[in-house]
Specification:
Helix content is 41%, strand content 19%. By secondary structure, the protein is α+β, with helices and mostly antiparallel strands. A hairpin with a 4-residue loop joins strand 1 (27-33) and strand 2 (38-44).
């Protein structure tokens, strides 16, 4: 699946409004193919700590925002 870079940037900005502490990690939305279908995920220039309190919620917020903008279910 191709990701629209403009929509992805908007979705990341929306996520950063809710979780501004994630801005220093350099998030990028990617699509990872799986055995059946695939999944949207975030890749980071600098990986946040595994126990970072907002990492999972930030990713979920960005993915939901992108899906809403792109009309993907």
């Amino acid at each position: 699946m191709d990701i629209d870079p403009r929509l992805a940037a908007e979705a990341i900005q929306e996520g950063l409004q809710k979780y501004p502490d994630m801005s220093s990690f350099g998030a990028r939305l990617v699509w990872r193919p799986l055995f059946k279908g695939g999944a949207f995920m975030l890749e980071y220039e600098t990986q946040p700590a595994r126990d970072h309190p907002n990492a999972w919620e930030f990713q979920n917020a960005v993915v939901r925002a992108y899906k809403r903008r792109a009309g993907v279910e």
